[in-house]
Specification:
362 residues; alpha+beta; Elongation Factor Tu (Ef-tu), domain 3; OB fold (Dihydrolipoamide Acetyltransferase, E2P); 4 helices; 19 strands; rod-shaped
C-alpha cells in the first residue's frame, strides 16, 4: 500500500515539475472570432392577408409548399360579395338597355318629337298662308296673329321635347357609368374572396386552415423567396463595435451541425433590439443552402480579425490586467495584446520569444 502511495506522489511531483517549467511564445496564425446565436430567415417574404371577412375554404396549401404567382390557394366564403356583384350586374344590364335605341322612355320621346315636328310644320305652313292672305285683306288681323302664335308654340313644344330627350339620354348615360363602375368595384371586392399568391415562393408560415373564420387583415400565411435565405444573428452589445460589413461568418445549423457554412455580414441594424437584448446583424450565405427551414437555430462565429505569423501564448497563461508570469522576474509582467482568440493571445509588447512564461498558479 505504501508503495502505491509513493508511485502516486512521484507522478504528481513529475506533473507539477513539468508544468512549472512553463512555455515559450510561439509563432502561429491567429483569428479573432465573435460568437453569436441566430436563426434562418428569408430576406424577401410577405404576409398573405385576408382582404375580406368569411370562412376559409379550399385552403389547398401546407407549410413548405411552393406556390407560383397568380395561383389561387384558398377561398374565403363571403356571400355578401357574391350578392353585391350579382346586383351590380343586373343594374348594369338595365342601364345598358336605357341607353339603347330601343329604350322605352327614349322611344316614347322620339315619337313625341316626331309628332311635335309634324305639328310645327303644319302650323308654320298655316302661318305662311295667313301672312299672304293678310296682304290682300282676306283674313283678319286676329286670325293672322293666332296663326303666328300657333307656329311659335309648336316650335317651343318641339324644342322642349328635344331638350327633354337630351336630359333623359344624359341621365341614362350617367346611370350606365355609375352602374359600370359599381360592377367593377363589386368585381374587385368579389376577387378578394380568392386568396391569390402575388408572387412565387415557399410557404414558411401557416396561420389559418380550412374552416377558420378570418377577418379582413388577418394573416393567412407567410410566403418567402427561397433564393433569398439569410442568417439573422444576435450580437452582444459588448461585441457589436467590432462587427463590420463584409466580414466572414462561420455558421453551423442546429439541423446540420457537421456541416460548415460560410457567409458575409450584409447588414447591421442600427438599433438595440429590446426583445433579444442584442444587436441584429444579417448574413448572406456564400452559396445557396441545399435545404433550410424557416426559424432554424444556428451558431455563428464572426471573423473580426486575423494575423499570420503572430507571437502567441496560451490564453490560460495570461491573468487579469494582461499580466503574465515570466521566469526570472519577481513580479508579473504586463503585456500589450493584439488579437485574442478562445485559446491564444497575440502578444505585441512586454515579452520576447526567449522568455519562459510560467503558469498563473505555481
Amino acid at each position: 500500500m505504501k508503495k502505491n502511495n509513493r508511485i502516486i506522489f512521484l507522478l504528481v511531483l513529475l506533473i507539477s515539475c513539468a508544468g512549472s517549467k512553463g512555455i515559450k511564445p510561439e509563432i502561429k496564425d491567429i483569428k479573432e472570432l465573435i460568437f453569436a446565436s441566430g436563426t434562418i430567415n428569408w430576406d424577401d417574404s410577405y404576409n398573405l392577408t385576408a382582404q375580406t371577412d368569411g370562412i376559409l375554404t379550399n385552403a389547398n396549401f401546407e407549410l413548405g409548399d411552393t406556390v407560383s404567382a397568380g395561383m389561387i390557394i384558398g377561398i374565403i366564403d363571403n356571400k355578401t360579395n357574391n350578392i353585391n356583384t350579382q346586383s351590380a350586374q343586373q343594374l348594369l344590364a338595365i342601364s345598358v338597355q336605357n341607353i339603347s335605341n330601343n329604350a322605352p322612355a327614349l322611344k316614347q320621346l322620339e315619337q313625341n318629337i316626331i309628332s311635335a315636328e309634324n305639328k310645327y310644320n303644319q302650323d308654320k305652313i298655316q302661318a305662311q298662308r295667313y301672312e299672304e292672305l293678310i296682304k290682300i285683306n282676306a283674313v283678319s288681323q286676329v286670325e293672322y296673329e293666332n296663326s303666328n302664335l300657333a307656329a311659335i308654340n309648336s316650335l317651343s313644344q318641339l324644342n322642349a321635347l328635344k331638350s327633354q330627350y337630351q336630359v333623359l339620354l344624359q341621365q341614362a348615360q350617367q346611370q350606365y357609368i355609375n352602374s359600370s363602375n359599381q360592377l367593377k368595384n363589386s368585381s374587385v371586392v368579389l376577387s378578394y374572396n380568392q386568396l391569390t399568391a402575388p408572387q412565387s415562393g415557399t410557404i414558411i408560415k401557416q396561420h389559418k386552415t380550412n374552416g377558420d373564420y378570418v377577418r379582413k387583415g388577418d394573416i393567412i400565411a407567410v410566403i418567402a423567396n427561397p433564393k433569398n435565405v439569410e442568417a439573422v444573428l444576435n450580437v452582444d452589445e459588448n461585441s457589436i463595435g467590432k462587427i463590420k460589413l463584409g466580414q466572414t461568418v462561420y455558421i453551423k445549423l442546429n439541423t446540420a451541425k457537421d456541416k460548415n457554412i460560410t457567409g458575409k455580414i450584409s447588414s447591421i441594424v442600427p438599433a438595440f433590439d429590446e426583445k433579444t437584448q442584442s444587436f441584429i446583424c444579417k448574413v448572406q450565405f456564400d452559396e445557396a443552402l441545399e435545404f433550410s427551414l424557416y426559424g432554424t437555430q444556428l451558431e455563428a462565429n464572426v471573423l473580426v480579425g486575423e494575423k499570420k505569423n503572430a507571437m502567441l501564448i496560451p490564453r490560460s497563461y495570461m491573468g487579469y490586467g494582461n499580466k503574465v508570469r515570466v521566469k526570472g522576474k519577481d513580479k508579473p509582467v504586463i503585456v500589450k495584446t493584439g488579437i485574442v482568440s478562445t485559446e491564444y493571445v497575440e502578444i505585441l509588447e512586454g515579452i520576447t520569444m526567449n522568455d519562459l512564461i510560467l503558469p498563473l498558479k505555481p
